[in-house]
Amino acid sequence: MIFIFLTILFSSLIFVAFKLFPRFKIDNFQALTINYLAASTIGIIILGSEFNYEMIITKSWLPFSLLIGFVFIFTFILFALSSQKAGVAITAVFSKMSVIIPVIAGIFLYSEKLNALIVLGIISTFSAFILIFYKRGKNKIQISIIVLPIIIFFANGLIDTLLKYIEHYHIAGDYTLFLTMIFITALIIGSIISIYRYFKTKQAFTIQSIIGGTILGLFNYSTTYFMLLAMNLFESNVLFPLQNVGIVMLSALLGIFFFREKLSLTNWIGIFLSILAILLIALA
To answer: Cβ distance 243 to 227 under 8 Å?
Structure first.
């Protein structure tokens, strides 16, 4: 159980770190690039002699790791912006409700059966969307803050769908190596963009961004590392419901107590409805 708790803790701390970046004048993109440098370095150290370029290029999952690496850094940028603009709680909720996307994909890709629990979960998800973004006194959705979490919902769902497909057809015990290659790909993309930004704006990396990015990288790798340990001890129908619900609840509480994010009763109903949706889909 300690591994599940640590996964929940470090995943929630990622959202908190993003929320704190503006306070310490940390550039989002610089920190994200350093984050992937730190995560890649940790992965290479853990792999040791198992990290072999000649072996990597023979892996069937290599093209997918490059694609996911690109989507990873894109989604992480959105995580940063959404945590700062829409809030820690809402960003966490939408990132975890994206579980419905790989579930729906599984129905079409792997002929998995559609049952009443999945249907209820999908209905609960979209109902939660409306309630979370409902603003008292105005009978309309807050369009100004809905865009980022919605994009995160689909981007995170795409990542989960790709990971499920790769795990189903390509990965054979190469989880750590595969993950490290994703981090390295994201690092390369981030470095290229950072070099372009430097020549365009002459904005060099700051010490705050380096420190913030390193801390973020430790949180990022720790989340995945402890999740992999938990996967060896718990079945998926136990692990993922506990993990996703735990991240939603802890992130919401951290957002309220540390950043004074205000949620109405309607918003809270939406959050609990999102938790119900996660549980229904997991049980299905």
So the answer is: yes
What are the boundaries of each domain within the chain? 2-283
Q: Each residue of 171-221: pLDDT tens digit?
A: 777 778 888 899 999 999 999 988 888 888 888 899 999 999 999 999 998
Number of other CB atoms surrounding residue 132 within 10 Å: 27
Can you spell out the DSSP letters for 190-218? HHHHHHHHHHHH--PPPHHHHHHHHHHHH
Q: Which residues contact 131 (CB under 8 A, 6 or more apart)?
A: 266, 267, 269, 270, 273
How many other β-carbons are positioned within 10 Å of the β-carbon of residue 105?
18
Based on its alpha-carbon atoms, the radius of gyration of the chain, rounded to whole angstroms, reads: 19
pTM for this prediction: 0.81
**CA dist 95 to 78, 132, 170, Å?**
11, 13, 25
Among residues 168, 173, 148, 171, the alpha carbon closest in space to that of 75 is found at 148
